[in-house]
């Protein structure tokens, strides 16, 4: 269904409502409300739980079910409740007519637990009560009117709003209290009117308190206060008054005042208001030489140039006060200014700068200088007194007030303060400058900054290098303060000092290995023969650099070792000396060449050369420098940066052990001889070799069998066999000799 709504005036609703009706397939009959619409009213100030009205639905005939009620729509904020058993509608929260004046509730009835409902519409009118006072949009306001406005002129319209309706919202205006008979107000429209002509001179402004009251019962009131802080009714002025001078027409000023000095304050009053009462000031005559300046706004009269009583002792100025009205009104006054005489002749020193000198260490009372000034004034004004103006060191001097003589008040010390700048002044204002120089005496000896210096320098420092700049201070001046430097101890020709600058320099190359430390004294002297000299002790530590090569004790070593020794047998210990210190002097040993097959090894720290394998004399008889397989070249390196090294050659002789027997060149010798060979003939020669050396290789030959009858002779050294007896073939055809080589 589409439902539309229309009010009593015939205006339709802005939109229609769509209602969907579901037809249930049931024979149940709902409880039907007695009325399809209920109308109730309740005042907006009703307390919570106030009974508004009761709805009633009747159950069908012969029904034993109980009817229950509930609000199903129209109360989104929960301001109402309904008794589910009796249908009594009550307030649940406070109501506000201004927020919602009509409430439409939809109430449903249900018969037991039946799914069939019936509904009714409950219209509740929230009746207005007078609970809102009239309210002005602003608490203050301001209007300006001219005093020429005629009576009856509207000058202001008051507006107040009341949220209530009907008589409760109908506002009436009034002027609170008997404030003035100048204004009236329309009670309905709030228009404020003039009742008579106003004059600014009598009263310039009015403050009205306007009340707004509604027509409720009881009525509520609001006040609009037009007070002096915010809103006023201001009466505009006309320029009908001339300024009048309030300041005196006579003033005095000293002739020695500075330019810009305030001489007089000219002041005039004008009772008019606004621009009509704003006064400016002007000099009309009497200031032809422009001696004065008048500020036209403040009326302050000041000097524009220096005044001189002797030139002009009186000024007569015609001054005008002018307002800013239209037309402008004015007043004039003759102001007399008397210039008073002063003692304006300043004493003048004969010299503006005095320069002199005085010796230090003199007793107090030493004459310094006499200053003198003159004053062109007469009488008491020309009598002069001298004094010293405060300044640095001024307390060390005294000035004779009458004569101007300056003497010392204390003994002076040039080293404490050498120059004094003293200002002397007579009793008025003239000053002179005195520059006093204190002459130096040689009363201080030079002093070194420290009594002992210790420095470290590298031994490879070049000759002529500066190692330290000594400095001694002498508080004296000039020649008395010139310091000369010298050395008084033996530096072994290694150091010298510049007599002027104090720079200590090397005079030869340093060698830590020769001398690692120097200790000597330096002296600072001035030209005095009376004061002691200042000395300081210098210790120079020479730091090592890696400038020495490790050096073997011998460049060529010879050593021997028996063959057949076990590995790690010590052969010889070598040593290389390095004169450097620390890492620069630490030596490490190694085999550089000649150690084929790693036959030998060397202890890198101790330099002990040992066998690494078993040796065989017969395989290699010697290790010599010339042949790669017969020599060892040893290397000694230090640990400096960069590292330095040297080499040495070791010739190792392997000593023979008799471990080899003689071997004949042939195991069997066959010799054929004729039986006619004469006795003494050389028959043959046997030969054997022995791999050993020396005596172990010397061979002796002997016949151990087969020469029983002595036919043969064997030379035991050469192995030569000779015939000793005549041979007879028929007797013996063959001889077998067993020869032994040993």
Characterize the structure shown.
The protein folds into seven domains: 102 residues, Cadherins (Immunoglobulin-like, Sandwich); 106 residues, Immunoglobulin-like, CATH 2.60.40.60; 96 residues, Immunoglobulin-like; 92 residues, Cadherins (Immunoglobulin-like, Sandwich), CATH 2.60.40.60; 84 residues, Cadherins (Immunoglobulin-like, Sandwich), CATH 2.60.40.60; 105 residues, Immunoglobulin-like (Sandwich), CATH 2.60.40; 79 residues, Sandwich (Immunoglobulin-like). The radius of gyration is 71 Å and the shape is flat. It is mainly beta and 742 residues long. About 2% of the residues have low confidence. Strands 49, 52, 55, 56 and 57 form a five-stranded mixed sheet that branches.
At a glance:
With 742 residues, this protein is mainly beta.
Protein traits:
742 residues, mainly beta, Immunoglobulin-like, 7 domains, 5-stranded mixed sheet, 64 strands, 0% helix
| CATH topology assignment of the largest domain | Immunoglobulin-like
Major sheet summary line: 5 strands, mixed
- Helical content stands at under 10%
CATH second-level architecture of the largest domain: Sandwich
From the spread of the alpha carbons, the general shape counts as flat
Output the radius of gyration: 71 Å
The secondary structure category is: mainly beta
Strand content: 35-45%
Poorly predicted ranges (pLDDT <50, ≥5 residues)?
Answer: 224-232, 621-629
How many helices? 0
Distance between the termini: 153 Å
- Quote the average pLDDT: 85
Number-wise, the strands total: 64
